[in-house]
Write a structure and sequence with these properties.
By secondary structure, this protein is mainly α. The chain has one domain. The chain is 79% helix and 0% strand. Helix 1 packs across helix 12, helix 4 packs across helix 9 and helix 11 crosses helix 14. The N and C termini lie close together (11 Å).
């Protein structure tokens, strides 16, 4: 019996979250030999050029108005990547950073009124979970909100702005060229920041370049290509709940591959933040569960 498009989209998005979670590990290993901003500049420039090579004609067909729409989206995406990689470089726990970064999806509706969008009531229901989760993380005797964690929170804020602007831009531009522009702009921004703040060196061992290649090909190029394909096969509400699995994969992979240890209080804090994302997206959760029942 052939699978329906919504079911195929769910499976592809599940694979997307796994690739995104693995990307945290690929990046962490790459940073053992590459400076953070140089790594991001190389990663996103390479991935953007790969996407351009896949569909160069769509870029040449963009109008000036479409380029003006894509520019601020790419700018915010570049800011996200700067704070994200600095957080990854400085933070004590990848798993905690992954959940803090995922707060961006909770912040989106809170910033909505600034762009003429009215938050739904589930946003306010999710806020107590967020506060309680952050309290569990920060009150642990072995955990403090340091520079790395603050970078992840800044990245989450820019991610919220990016989600709003990208949602508008995606209605005016084709997905693949929009993604390519975002990646290339992120590469240019991080390259520029690296040129002024870091010393470049390219004498890393081959193992570092192996992790870098995995980050470019699997966690960036393949991930965004699969995500683009999946989003064209089902309503956006399908992806809302599934995409929140990224920090879960990141946390599990960090424990398995990097040997990270988390206290019960820290695990509870992450669980509460994850619960906040679920409460915030409860209408999408109900829709997804109803759709799954109907496809059986």
């Amino acid at each position: 019996m052939p699978l329906s498009n919504p079911v195929k989209a769910d499976l592809l998005l599940l694979l997307t979250t796994l690739l995104a979670g693995a990307g945290w590990i690929f990046s962490k290993e790459s940073l053992a030999g590459l400076t953070p901003l140089l790594f991001m500049g190389l990663r996103f420039t390479a991935s953007g050029l790969i996407l351009v090579a896949m569909d160069s004609r769509s870029l040449t067909r963009l109008t000036r108005a479409q380029w003006r729409t894509a520019f601020p989206v790419g700018l915010f995406f570049g800011c996200i990547m700067i704070f994200w990689v600095l957080g990854l470089h400085l933070a004590n726990y990848i798993s905690v950073g992954a959940f803090l970064f995922s707060l961006g999806i909770v912040i989106v509706p809170l910033l909505g009124p600034l762009f003429g969008e009215k938050p739904h009531r589930w946003v306010f229901f999710s806020l107590p979970f967020v506060v309680a989760g952050l309290a569990c993380l920060s009150l642990d005797s072995e955990f403090v909100i340091g520079a790395g964690e603050l970078c992840f929170l800044a990245a989450a804020f820019f991610m919220a702005l990016f989600f709003i602007l990208n949602g508008r831009a995606s209605t005016r531009l084709p997905t693949l060229p929009l993604t390519a522009i975002q990646l290339l702009m992120a590469g240019v921004i991080t390259f520029t920041a690296s040129a002024f703040t870091e010393t470049w060196s390219f004498d890393q061992p081959w193992s570092i370049w192996g992790w870098f290649a995995a980050s470019v090909l699997l966690a960036t190029t393949l991930r965004f290509s699969i995500q683009t394909r999946a989003q064209g096969m089902a309503p956006a509400s399908h992806g809302a709940i599934i995409m929140t699995l990224e920090p879960v994969w990141a946390a599990l992979l960090a424990v398995w591959w990097l040997g990270e240890n988390m206290t019960l209080l820290q695990v509870s804090g992450c669980a509460l933040i994850f619960a906040a994302m679920l409460v915030n997206r409860w209408p999408a959760v109900r829709y997804w569960m109803r759709s799954m029942r109907e496809t059986r």
